[in-house]
Amino acid sequence: MSNVGLRIYKAINRPSKTMIESFAGLPVANIADNMNRMSCIHARLRPINDVPLLGTAFTIKSRPGDNLLLHKALDLAQPGDVLVVDAQGDLSNSIMGELMVMWAKKRGIAGFVIDGAIRDRGALKNLGIPIYAAGVTPAGPYKDGPGEINVPVSCGGIVIKPGDILVGDEDGLVAIAPKDAAELLQKAKAKNLTEQKTMEDIENGKWDRSWVDKALTERGCEMID
Predict the structure, then answer these.
(1) Phi/psi of residue 10, each to 5°?
(2) Quick check: pTM over 0.90?
(3) Average pLDDT, whole number, for the chain?
(4) Residue 107 — left, alpha, or beta (φ > 0 → left; ψ -120 to 50 → alpha)?
(5) Domains parsed from the chain with CATH numbers
(6) Residue 172, strand partner residues
């Protein structure tokens, strides 16, 4: 019998390491622009440090304020995985702190995305592992459950599935379905090249701004002297 709300799926389909690493260095904004700007985590989840995030989603759905299933995920996840915790955005109790992140780093975990609170922020800034969280509180977590591991979760306003590719920088984070990754990679690289050309045009005073007046005209904007 299935114990809904307290179960762990051990196996997930991870994209190839080559595909994941292909997104390294690409601005999250450029990736998101090619996803119709619909796959970014909400701005309320902010990076705790400036370490870029890149890895595979290993998801945890937890009861607000409880980290029992996150503790289990720390032992199950593989190097290169990003632990994504749906704690329903609750900020009453922290979901993790310094000791858990130290253990995660020892095991090769690639980062954390916490739709909830953390603590020990000062230490976490300097541990060299990327962390996104909705808030900070000194109040510690409970360890009673329930929760689930490796199910689709709602995190920062988007659905993240086990095995999704996660890319994060100082702007925020985007989730990429593996089936879309190859095409999206090419589009994001092309977008990056286009922006580099625009930067050169700006530097040389040649940025074409004609589209602004064209857009206003199409919308019937009245120009008044």
Answers:
(1) -80, -35
(2) yes
(3) 96
(4) alpha
(5) 6-187 (3.50.30.40)
(6) 169
Residue 37, by phi and psi: left (phi above 0), alpha (psi -120 to 50) or beta? left
| Res 2: pLDDT | 80
User: Residue 181: is its pLDDT beyond 90?
Assistant: yes
**CA 76 – CA 205 distance, rounded (Å):** 54
Backbone angles phi, psi at 2, to 5 degrees: -80, 130
Please give the Cα distance from 47 to 44 (Å, whole number): 10
Peptide bond into 138 cis (omega under 30): no
CA distance 219 to 222: 9
Question: What is the rounded distance in angstroms from the CA atom of residue 223 to the CA atom of residue 71?
Answer: 61
Pick from 94, 103, 91, 104: which is nearest to 67 by CA? 94
Give the type of residue at 90.
D
Distance, CA of 130 to CA of 54 (rounded, Å): 9
3-state secondary structure 91-112: CCCECCCHHHHHHHHHCCCCEE
Q: Are 116 and 107 in contact (CB under 8 A)?
A: no
Alpha helices in the chain (DSSP H): 17-21, 28-33, 68-76, 98-106, 121-124, 178-203, 210-218
Tokens of 19: 């595909």
